Amino acid sequence: MIKNALITGVTGQDGAYLAKLLLEKGYRVSGLVARRSSDTRWRLRELGIESELTYLDGDLADASSIQRAVIKAKPDEVYNLGAQSFVGSSWDQPITTGIVDGLGVTHLLEAIRQFSPHTRFYQASTSEMFGLIQAERQDENTPFYPRSPYGVAKLYGHWITVNYRESFGLHASSGILFNHESPLRGIEFVTRKVTDAVARIKLGKQRELRLGNIDAKRDWGFAGDYVEAMWLMLQQQKPDDYVVATGVTTTVREMCRIAFEHVELNYQDHVIIDPAFFRPAEVDVLLGNPGKAERVLGWSPKTSLESLIHMMLDADLRRVAKE
CA separation (Å) from 82 to 6, 67, 79? Predict the structure, then answer.
């Protein structure tokens, strides 16, 4: 029997990889798309799946459009990946971030509760909810301490998912994903900022790379691996919450070293520390413990950080060379 899936944020990095995975599994996939003047479907074209999706107009900030999308898509599974997902922008747009990343989750859950209670729901939670870490390795039982409007809004989305699961019996699960990157990541994120700059420096189009706290530590994985964990959560008999991570932490400095060495350059010759890029409230370390996902879902990451950085940098070298 063919399943129907509805993905919010389908034009983003995770949405594109997830849509590709579901199509390969034989799903009919609908994507919620807010009207924008710019081209938002380039990631879907990169993966060769743009024409294989059904697109529904809607915005997480607008409850009525969410209700219409749920009714029209008749989804067996809903994946809520739509968000204002750049941490830095959340200080400049705290209200928008709160509405989309927080209240938008309630709009989806309420639409499912009223019009499609059999639907299984996935909420994209984030390691940024841990913020000022309360344990050396963060798992499903680690207390949250968000340090940005983004983290706070996502924490609301996480807890309202738990609340609807416990109050109304919805099959609603959250994936607490640690940093996950790919060649489809937006240029504003530090991994793509690094690989794009390294490509430009190597090709003589740029001389330096300005960064903030390069000693910040993150647990980085490949988005293409992580969307499989999302799907696996909704295949379980019981809904639950899972940390999805590699279990390995690396500094931004080390990531820069890997990227520059891939093109035979020394990062110390090009990286400049710029105080303008430091966050108002820094999150110094994030390190996930994916033990539960490994044990219950049978999931584990397949891509090393070095392979991931090389993949991203090679894609940026090809792109920049064509400019």
Answer: 11, 15, 9
The alpha-helical segments, DSSP class H, found in 169-283 are 190-202, 223-233, 252-262
- Tell the CATH topology of 185-219+248-286+303-321: UDP-galactose 4-epimerase; domain 1 (3.90.25)
* Total residues found in the chain within this entry: 323
pTM attached to this predicted model: 0.94
- Would you state the pLDDT for residue 70? 97
Four-way CATH pick for 4-180+221-244: 3.40.1190.10, 3.90.1150.10, 3.30.470.30, 3.40.50.720: 3.40.50.720
Active site residue 188: no
Catalytic, 150? Answer yes
**Given the residues 27, 79, 122, 150, the one annotated as active site:** 150
pLDDT band at 278 (very low <50, low <70, confident <90, very high): confident
Tokens of 317: 């070298």
Please, which residues have CB within 8 angstroms of residue 179's CB and are 6 or more apart in sequence?
Answer: 127, 191, 218, 219, 220, 221, 286
